[in-house]
Amino acid sequence: NIMEGTHCFDPENPDETPPDDACPSEGANGEPLHLPVIEYPHLDNQGDADVAGISVIGGYIYRGEALSDHQGNYIFGDWSQSFGEPAGQLLMATPAGDGELWDVQQLMGLESYVLGFGEDANGELYVLTTDNTGPTGTTGQVLRIVPTGDGQ
After folding, report:
1. What pLDDT, on the 0 to 100 scale, is given for residue 130?
2. How are strands ordered across the β-sheet holding 125-130?
3. Mean per-residue pLDDT, 52-66
4. DSSP E strands: which ranges in the chain?
């Protein structure tokens, strides 16, 4: 509870951001901290960021053939851009140099909540979605991620 992404966090003063020079480089047991390679803002703090969301839904490094231009990129999602209606996102992060944050872009918006991802034996990816905020109903779907007409 000392970092939020790449940002310092003080649990004693959660509404105040500590200065960068106050960030520890070690955890409570002396273990080195490893900063994330991917970060994007919450909708409440989007500012001028191209991508923002509510909750990261982990994915996979793409190794399939259907989206050959995206091989080696991390395909993942965000649960929704709204609590009130299903508006999930498929996102992609492109690897950067050591110590640099990966570039994140939206591949597409969905009219469903994103629950998770799967990968088949050929490295093709699937996204699990629902139209409900909780574990109820029969709207769940497993969708294969394929290129759209614009090449994504």
Report:
1. 95
2. 113-119, 125-130, 141-144
3. 95
4. 3-4, 7-8, 56-61, 74-78, 89-94, 103-109, 113-119, 125-130, 141-144
pLDDT at 126 (0 to 100):
98
Determine the 3-state secondary structure of 12 from DSSP.
Answer: coil
CA–CA gap between residue 79 and residue 134 (Å, rounded) = 12
Length of the chain: 152
Q: Can you read off the two tokens belonging to residue 33?
A: 């901290």
Average pLDDT on 50-76 reads: 95
Instruction: Answer positive or negative: Cα dihedral of 149, 46, 103, 123.
Output: negative
14, HSE (Cβ side, Cα atoms, 13 Å): 3
**Residue 80 CB contacts under 8 Å (≥ 6 apart), including other chains:** 53, 54, 55, 86, 87, 88, 89, 113, 114
